[in-house]
Amino acid sequence: MSTVKLAVIYYSATGTVDAMARHAAEAGEKAGAEVRLRQVARQATGGEREATEAQAAHAEVAPATEAASADDVVWADAVLFGSPTRYGNIAGQLKTFLDSLGPQWGQGLLADKVYAGFTASQTLHGGQESTLLALYNTIHHFGGIIVAPGYTDPLKFVDGNPYGASHVTGANNDEPLGDADIDALRHLASRVVTVSERLAS
Ligand SMILES: Cc1cc2nc3c(=O)[nH]c(=O)nc-3n(C[C@H](O)[C@H](O)[C@H](O)COP(=O)(O)O)c2cc1C
């Protein structure tokens, strides 16, 4: 059986989704996949939060991640997209990247792959579910196979998000990832790899 190719493609302004993407990528590798960790170009929109000291420090130590390209999506058998919640939707930067995939979409190169998503929001009911559902609108147009985590493991009753994985950054936008968040990210990544393997066989 050939190795599953997993692309983890994310946008992050202040480092939260970046940290989430790294957990997902690591879990994908542990599950046996070849992984590409890629970030969508960080462009300030003017409305973004200032990074706290800890977030700026994280950005400095985090190895520079390669920029995402259309080829990363075409290459992959499975893709995990990560985005901060923005007004209950994905960030414009990730949307711009998705919109740039028109030529690949037109050739059917985005279809028949496994997709899922993860997000972070500042508040508990601030739109994580609507963000993931908004992301999945695009995946339907790709002809992608959305592999939602559902409640397929007892740990999903702890993080409580059957649509993907998510984290609440809190009033100061700097709440670190907790065990439940990390477990959910690991579960999400290993599940998309396992389902991709089953599809390939
Ligand atoms: C323009 C803008 C819109 C936002 N909209 C929401 C929102 O709808 N709900 C929410 O809880 N947080 C919202 N936030 C907070 C972000 O979701 C939070 O800062 C983000 O998850 C941090 O991710 P990052 O560190 O990877 O950039 C918004 C932030 C900005 C800058």
TrEMBL record:
Molecular-function GO term, any one: NAD(P)H dehydrogenase (quinone) activity
Top enzyme category: oxidoreductase
Tagged with keyword Cytoplasm: no
UniProt keyword annotations, A-Z: Oxidoreductase
Top-rank taxon: Bacteria
Domain called Flavodoxin-like: residue spans: 6-193
Pfam family, one: FMN_red
Entry keyword annotation includes Oxidoreductase: yes
EC number: 1.6.5.2
Designated name of the protein: NAD(P)H dehydrogenase (Quinone)
UniProt source species: Pseudonocardia parietis
